[in-house]
Amino acid sequence: MTNYPRDEFDRVPEFNTRVGSHHANGWAQSAASTTSGGKLRWVVIAAVLVVLVGAFAYFFGPGGLKPIVGSAPNPTETTSAAPSENATSSPSETESATPSASSTIDDDDVLFGQLIGVYNGASIAGIASAGEDVLSEAGFTNITASNWTRPAETSTVYYTSEAYRTTAEKAAEVLNIDEVLQTQNIPNRVTVVMGSDDTLEVR
User: Fold this and answer.
1) Contacts 24+ apart (CB under 8 A), 177-186
2) Quick one: residue 23, left, alpha or beta (phi over 0 = left, psi -120 to 50 = alpha)?
């Protein structure tokens, strides 16, 4: 056997477990990747479990479910709102609800100087004169009093045309007479017949 001089290639460790460098590096990378991936997976699983346990303890623990803010009524608001619901109306509202007793007839449309005949149809002495006095006190200036040709049960104020309607209504209002009728068969354009139902006091 030929002996050759030893060179650098002959200086190899007697016990060497090294394999090809590319195989060794590939195995190391694969092992490292597998190890890190497994650790990350367990970390994620552990985090999810912690969140689930915390949520369960929050909602179903000894304290029960937490009330949602604003869901429960505020006692102070309920108490303060109660008096307003049962409050009585103000004096001004009560007074405004009372109907006015003032006349609905515009005095500017009334012919206070128009001749008005007041007739006694109730066979009560002095009732026509009493009606004349009341009309005079109300502002009428041209009034005559006499007896009606026949008995009348209902007091009535008659007028001949629309031009005297407001004047007739004013006379009826003053004398507290409900019946106001239009007719041509009367002695004056505005005629008042005092009937037996009249409540006017004779002076």
Assistant:
1) 179/154, 179/155, 180/156, 181/156, 181/157, 182/158, 183/158, 183/159, 184/160, 186/117, 186/158, 186/160
2) alpha
Closest-CA residue to 117 (of 180, 198, 179, 194): 194
Is residue 33 over pLDDT 90? no
> Which pLDDT belongs to residue 12?
57
Q: What is the DSSP track for 143-190?
A: EEEEE-SS--SS-EEEESSGGGHHHHHHHHHHHT--EEEE-S-SSSSE
Listed residue (147, 144, 139, 181) closest to 164, CA to CA: 181
The first and second tokens of residue 37, run together, are 């991936």
Q: Are 189 and 115 in contact (CB under 8 A)?
A: yes
Question: Mind giving me the DSSP string for 5-24?
Answer: ---GGG---SS-----HHHH
Domains of the chain, with CATH numbers?
A: 106-194 (3.30.70.2390)
Structure tokens at 2: 């030929």
Give mean pLDDT, residues 165-182.
96
Residue ranges of the alpha helices (H) in 61-164? Answer: 75-86, 91-97, 127-137
pTM reported for the whole predicted model:
0.50
